[in-house]
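in:
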């Protein structure tokens, strides 16, 4: 198992990823998903969109780890998940997020759409187009998108 602090230094997926790579990957996956959505590949687009949020939350987690500090074991172990709600809890930004969704009902609605994503979506082949489009909108909305907000704190 690769500890979170290792992400600070190493670039390959097999060795872990650093914060900047996770941020870039989030953007890349959204761009990939938009192309798939436009091509009618709704299930693949849906999966990649959730994965983009996962990468953004993991970028927030890495921000908590200082170079040369020994990371908290629970944080490391808990970060090895695809569960978006769990990743938000350990991201270091949940308190800020809770305040924001308390004052931004659109972000609250968008999170309710995003949090239902699971990595099991990679095995789905019948996700409807409107479901993938709704997830895209919930993630990239310029005012209240989940990824849009995460980019302000990552």
């Amino acid at each position: 198992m690769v500890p979170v602090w290792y992400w600070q230094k190493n670039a390959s997926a097999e060795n872990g990823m650093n914060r900047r790579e996770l941020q870039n990957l989030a953007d890349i996956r959204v761009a990939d998903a938009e192309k798939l959505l436009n091509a009618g590949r709704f299930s693949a687009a849906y999966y990649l969109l959730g994965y983009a949020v996962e990468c953004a939350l993991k970028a927030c987690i890495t921000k908590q780890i200082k170079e040369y500090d020994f990371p908290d074991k629970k944080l490391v172990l808990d970060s090895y998940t695809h569960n978006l709600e769990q990743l938000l809890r350990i991201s270091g930004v949940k308190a800020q997020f809770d305040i924001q969704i308390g004052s931004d009902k659109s972000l609250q609605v968008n999170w309710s759409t995003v949090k239902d994503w699971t990595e099991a979506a990679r095995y789905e082949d019948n996700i409807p187009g409107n479901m993938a489009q709704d997830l895209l909108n919930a993630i990239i909305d310029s005012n209240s998108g989940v990824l849009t907000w995460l980019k302000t704190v990552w």
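note: Residues 4-153 form a domain with the Four Helix Bundle (Hemerythrin (Met), subunit A) fold (CATH 1.20.120.330).
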